[in-house]
Amino acid sequence: MTVVEAFESGVLDLPDFYFAGDDYRHRFEAEAKRRFLDVLRERFNVGVRYNGRVLKWDTVIEQKAVELSRYLVDRSTELDFLKPSPCLYRTDQREFRKRILSLSQSEAQGLGIRKSTLHYLRKSGRSERPFRVYRKVAVRLSRAQSPS
After folding, report:
1. pLDDT under 50: residue ranges of the chain
2. What is the tens place of the pLDDT at every residue in 7-34?
3. DSSP assignment letter at 147
4. Are 133 and 141 in contact (CB under 8 A)?
5. pTM for the full predicted model
6. Is 54 helix (H, G, I), strand (E, B) or coil?
7. For the chain, what are the domain ranges?
8. Which of 14, 70, 91, 126 fits as disulfide partner to 76, beta carbons 3.0 to 4.6 Å?
């Protein structure tokens, strides 16, 4: 999902890649690698609920590696790679965009959405590119009436 997000957001683009000749591999430029690693690092720093706690993905991966090693040396009989599963969702769906674009200034003010936030949301909603809506604002928008 991170790779798709990187292409949709414009962090990566086809000109960032080049063909490496004899080994039939495509490589990508150093600057593009840095930009992608920034996106990847941000993704790994997202919290996920696991074993009753909220952990970062890199910690969960580390714990899963420990579980695997215990399983391989017969110190554990259980191995579960299905939990936790990543939550893959987008906050820029068509209905959400329509709701944003139909929201009046007074309705937004009634929901506690500031003028500058509404401006950003409308600008992003008119674009075809994916965009991020902060959870606090998304909750407020979910209280808004759907457009008729």
Report:
1. 146-148
2. 777 788 888 888 877 777 878 889 999 9
3. P
4. yes
5. 0.43
6. strand
7. 2-44, 47-88, 94-142
8. 70
